[in-house]
């Protein structure tokens, strides 16, 4: 068993004077010490694009990265660009994190996004599409097909497409129609043969139909974009009219939501109303094909009320999210080699084909599980399913931020409630773009008798927590799980995350207090093995960082290692700068945004920043501090952003087992090594990819190496 007599993770809740954070700082920092967060995000998406451009990546994975880039950029415009526009329109044009006006940042975003979207389109047309064709997967146009293929596709059009099309005329009797966000449309000009007048019509490409229509062929696979198929049958939609021209266009709207919770008597009703309003958000971006004529463009710009800056003229096809469908093609030679998640060693059943007793395994000591290398289904999911059917389990408490359709996690909670157990589900209905789904889950849980709560007013509950209360020999034991990722079986196969299982009594008490605070009116400030936002997480991390600074100044061992999705918070960044100036080696492993400048003389010369992208989305958050030879390790849900530290309920748990320390340390060693393929953040703010050595040989793939290490761990146990 692990010794649970450890120091407070709360780092002294009685030091309220710590807010002042007196650090004996020397000269003030330069005003330009931060990188712009929006441009840094675009740099992240550029790294995604670089994977699509890489000919050493399997071609169907390259196609998938093009789709990911497109999806990422859509959300960036719907939320981040929309937020900047809203601040400008409402007059709340406060400076950004780099001290510049939002209008100037918006201009920089526009220039960078225009360049990236053109590069994205060219990567498809000039690199990925030809590579797919060479592999026998061809995306073609109508003109590339022969007469027999035209005939078969015409039959398909008449039977499956034509009946659901809805052309909308624009004339004095028909006002310009509403254009929904992210819909793909055809702008059509037709001429009336009797009057000679040219009219305009809009045709929405039905989103429920396959975007890429398979063309029957004897060899290989061929597809045609459905908008091309429709465009070549417009005569059927406008009989008696001459089709003069047609062009594809796509509109992005502001889909960020602002809920005034303090003024709302019913959060669910307010959220449902806001979801309806989201559909009618103002336009943010208009994408058009590069062959669109000026007359059509002028009409769209006028009717949609967009500026020239918001128009993105691109070679077709638009909306390459359609390429997600190609990832389902069964061509193993064109994908990454398959990887089957393994059951964590501690959770492997004692007998072949037997069922593991997860409670017994956790009682032996803390269990750290690394997804997707280790299975979510045989750890987190199995833990909750065992709890649901175990007659000795009295209660289950769970946070749900995002989950999947037909979620076994939700079903386990329902089964537990129907079995008579006390079940609490904290469903975060404000999880962006999952609001409607989460409302549905909440109502389904309520019908089953689960106690459903929606968290605290003004805060999102983002922490990943599960607590099971089990009676054992007349004593209640707490089984806790604290994770870095959502309780989502589908994304757990793609997202890299950690989860800690423990029966540590202190963690159980901490989670009990935290759940009470979230579901009731308790105000509990004392957590022993957790760091919890918004009250204590920032304060605790600043203390830990500053302790490393003071240790370095005193000649004691000092080092900081942080793995996050985003590094934006100015207070955290400034504390890391101070640590660097004191001589503390600081290693930052970041997936996305990084506003911190690395390697700048006299500011951050001891800070190294790396980014790793690959088949899995790096999602875990890890914080390690040397602490004068007594290292402290934390994992949890929080990124270093204002929203995570100030406007969300987040939780980090201290990891105490020496074996787990080594596992996390080895992971950092691998990621930060010069022999590992990664992107390096340069002092000028540019990200440079390092994927081959001086001789042109590929560097180590960190995710492949992690798979191999976990496979070896399993073989070692099997050999004992």
Main sheet makeup: 10 strands, mixed
User: What's the mean pLDDT score?
Assistant: 89
- Total beta strand runs: 27
Any low-confidence stretches, pLDDT <50, length ≥5? 1-24, 259-264, 715-720
Q: What is the second-level CATH architecture of the largest domain?
A: 2-Layer Sandwich
Provide the CATH superfamily of the largest domain.
Answer: Endonuclease Chain A
CATH topology value of the largest domain: Endonuclease, Chain A
Number of helices: 18
Total domain modules? 3
Strand pairing plus helix content: what structural class?
alpha/beta
Give an overview in words.
This protein is α/β, with parallel strands linked by helices and 720 residues long. The chain folds into three domains: 16-32 and 531-719, Endonuclease, Chain A, CATH 3.30.870; 138-334, 2-Layer Sandwich (polyphosphate kinase like), CATH 3.30.1840.10; 345-526, Endonuclease, Chain A (2-Layer Sandwich), CATH 3.30.870.10. 36% of the residues lie in helices and 21% in strands. The chain is built from 18 helices and 27 strands. Strands 14, 18, 19, 20, 21, 23, 24, 25, 26 and 27 form a ten-stranded mixed β-sheet that branches. Strands 10, 11, 12, 13, 15, 16, 17 and 22 form an eight-stranded mixed β-sheet that branches. A six-stranded mixed β-sheet has the order 2-4-3-7-8-9, with helices on both faces. Helix 1 (37-53) runs antiparallel to helix 2 (59-90) and helix 14 packs parallel to helix 15 (570-581). The longest helix has 33 residues, at 102-134. It starts with 36 loop residues before the first helix and ends with a helix. Mean pLDDT is 89; it is low at 1-24, 259-264 and 715-720.
